[in-house]
Structure formats: C-alpha cells, structure tokens
Design a protein that fits this description.
There is one protein chain. Strands 3, 5, 6, 8, 16, 17 and 19 form a seven-stranded antiparallel sheet that branches. This protein is 13% helix and 34% strand. The chain starts with a helix and ends in a 10-residue tail after the last helix. α1 runs antiparallel to α5. By secondary structure, it is mainly β.
Length: 421
C-alpha cells in the first residue's frame, strides 16, 4: 500500500484532538508507602502481492505465545558491514552515508516474543530515517520492509514569539539534540503497539539495510515486551489513607517533546475558557488539531510531583472532526503504560471545548501512583479498537492498487475511448 494512501486511512481512523490545558487535575490520595489480534475477516483478505506475509499473518503462523522475560542486548560494535562506511566512537556506531547493510549476530536463550528497541541519534538534519530489517537474512513480515525512526522536536524557547502589537504566535521548532530511544512499530498504524518478533532459542542475526542517511547507533536490544495489567489488578495493591486536592496543572501548549515539527502551539481567541486568554490580543493557548492526527504521532509533557500519592487527571479538549465518533490516544507515564485502559483514551465528538476525566464507565476516576519528583506524560495517536478495520481496509487498498496497475499496463493512464480493450 502506498504511504500516501496508508496515511490517509490512518487520518480517517485517528482524527485530530485539540488540547488546551491538560489539567492533570490531579487530585492526590496519599499512601502509606511508597492483544493485538485482527478479526477473522481481516485475516481472510488476501493481498496481491510481494510474496511476503504481513504482520497479522506472521503472528498467526509463528506459534510462539510467551513474552520474553529478559532483554537481549546486541554487541553494537561487533558488526559485519557489507558496503557500509562505519566508524566506532565512544561506544557509538556512526554510519556515515547510510548505504550498504550492517549485520549483528546474537544468541537467544528463551524462545519468546521480543520488541526491537533502538537507541540512536540522527547525524544530520532531515527526514525521518526509513529502512528494511532482516532477521536471519529474511524479511520476517511485510511491514518490516519500512521501519521508521521518528526524530523528536521541541520549541526553540519557552515563550511564544510576538508581533509588534503583542500578539503571540508559535515558537520555531528545532530538533532535540539527544539520543532517541525507539521501540519499532508499524509506521502506518494498522497494528497497535510495538512489533513482537518471534525468536527461537539459538543463534540469530539482525540486518539493517541502507537507511541512506548519516545515523549513530548507541544500542540495539531485543527487549522483553511491556506487560500491562488491567486497572482492577493494578489498583488491588493500592493503599489509600486520605484525599487532598493538590492539583498539578500542565498547559497543553507547553509540550516539551513532539514527534513532528508540524505539531506546534496554536491560539484560539473564540472561547473565554482558554488559558491563557486575552480580550484584545492573540494568545498561544492550545496544541493539537490536524497536525496531530497521524497514527503514532506523540506529544510529551514534563511535570513535577511535590508529594508522592495517587493521582487522577482531567483535561480540556475539543474533537470536532469525526462526527458522532471518537478519537483515541495512548497515555504513558514516564514512558510506560500504567494499566490496560490507558492504551485507548477515547475523546468523543463535540463542537465545543469540554472537560474529560479519565474514568471508567461508572465515572470513577482511574488513579495512578506517582512518586515525588520529575515525571513525563505522553499521549500518542492510536486507532485503538478499530485497528483491525484499518488492517482490512489496507489489504483491500493493496488489492485495488495491484488491479489498477494491471489495467494501466493494458490501457495506459489515458485509455482510448474508441478502442475495445
């Protein structure tokens, strides 16, 4: 499926959400102490094709169900290069031109499912790196032919820019000059969550093929997948003594990390409930919208907790694109999913700004335990429960695309109306 069509489908299924303050309405309760499976219908859709099975077929065929319990760290400097211009400096591997291929050999002691985690840093400014990977010299599934590492961006300054009249407009976006940790996942969003690679006990190889740009690799690990329990199970260990309204407020427009330079702070002067707000000047007061609707797009905020305890949170949002539908976001705290329900926060349609409390169907807030100190909160665009429909649509688009090519081979792109083909 073409990237353009794939991203269009992703936008249909994961529409935009606008965030004005994520008021981590976080109320404190002090403590004593500190599946992703596609539908049968989707599996029955046959792609026309490259001869390589897709990820859904791969998960159905490999027969491994156990998740790894320990990480496998590849010896980053013990590589085999094939046409690659590589140097090693301070435990980092620099791939100067990104041409050729690099292969690492590693040992697996446990037959299980593993995530692939890459710690890397771009060598030059530019587009997100894209490349195929091979396991034991073969493409494990079709989506592995297009692995994407997303660059990270931030505001160049904390304060918005201003014009001569004092109206605010968005800060310039600059790349974050730091090591990035990426857990490999589906760049098109058809599969929710990171890929799980099935590895048997024994010797294996991983090959990265021609990213075609300067990259630095610091660490490559086949990691044990995150095990996420339900809120009911997680909260069974909670020990709440008393409640206190100690609120932490985060302004949505003050995001610290973004996965795209198009996700910029914005302004809305039509709603008096916006923060900040001015009756005569334009103020930067929200983030999101159409620039934050592609599956996998992520925004992250930093915040500090003054007292350890159990917190729930509210946020002020507007989702006015998907009529009578819901847009989904994946919540993570400090890079981890607190419980299963956080994998798909649903934001219903509405034409006005409204408040949202992360709660169950009975409107009981979900509590998250946070230690005193600095933390991060991230929200990632996900298609949520409709991922299987995305998969089914993508396979149909593949078939239609292949049939179109067959027709054009006979008729050309401008068929002769006077000719009987």
């Amino acid at each position: 499926m073409s990237k353009k069509i794939a991203r269009y489908l992703s936008v249909i299924l994961a529409v935009s959400v606008l965030f004005s303050g994520i008021s981590l309405q976080i109320t404190t309760a002090y403590a004593d102490t500190a599946d992703s499976t596609a539908s049968e219908n989707a599996q029955s859709v046959v792609s026309a094709d490259s001869g390589i099975i897709d990820y859904v077929e791969y998960t159905a065929e490999h027969g491994i169900t156990d998740k790894a319990t320990a990480d496998i760290k590849l010896p980053i400097t013990a590589y085999a290069a094939d046409g690659a211009d590589v140097t090693v400096n301070e435990n980092a591997l620099n791939w100067a031109t990104g041409e050729g291929r690099l292969t690492w050999t590693f040992e697996v002691s446990q037959t299980a499912l593993y995530n692939l985690k890459i710690m890397w840093k771009p060598g030059d400014s530019g587009i997100d790196p894209e490349f195929p990977i091979l396991i034991d010299g073969k493409t494990p599934f079709d989506e592995a032919e297009n692995i994407v590492l997303s660059r990270l961006w931030k505001n160049v300054s904390d304060e918005p820019r201003k014009d001569a009249q004092g109206n605010e407009y968005a800060q310039e976006q600059v790349e974050i000059d730091d090591i990035i940790t990426t857990v490999v996942c589906d760049s098109e969003g058809a599969t929710v969550g990171p890929f799980e690679f099935a590895l048997t006990a024994g010797t294996h190889t991983l090959t990265i093929v021609s990213p075609e740009q300067n990259l630095n690799f610091y660490d490559i690990t086949f990691a044990a997948p995150e095990v996420v329990d339900s809120y009911e199970k997680v909260s069974a260990d909670y020990n709440v003594k008393d409640l206190d309204a100690d609120i932490i407020t985060i302004e949505g427009e003050s995001a610290d990390v973004k996965s795209s330079n198009s996700i910029i702070p914005k302004s809305n002067n039509s709603d008096a409930g916006m923060s900040p707000c001015d009756n005569s000047l334009t103020k930067i007061n929200y983030i999101g919208g159409t620039s934050w609707q592609s599956s996998g797009s992520t925004i992250e905020w930093n915040f500090d907790v003054e007292k350890s305890g159990y917190y729930y949170f509210n946020m002020r949002y507007k989702q006015s694109d998907l009529v009578n539908g819901e847009s989904c976001r994946w919540l993570k705290i400090d890079g981890k999913t607190p419980f299963k329900e956080a994998e798909s926060l649903k934001f219903p349609y509405g034409t006005k700004w409204k408040y949202y409390t992360f709660a169950d169907e009975q409107e009981n807030p979900y509590y998250i335990y946070l230690e005193k100190g600095p933390h991060t909160l991230s929200m990632e665009v996900t298609v949520g429960e409709v991922s299987e429909y995305f998969y089914e649509l993508s396979k149909i688009v593949d078939i239609l695309g292949d049939e179109y090519i067959k027709i054009v081979m006979i008729t050309s792109e401008e068929p002769d109306v006077s000719r009987d083909y």
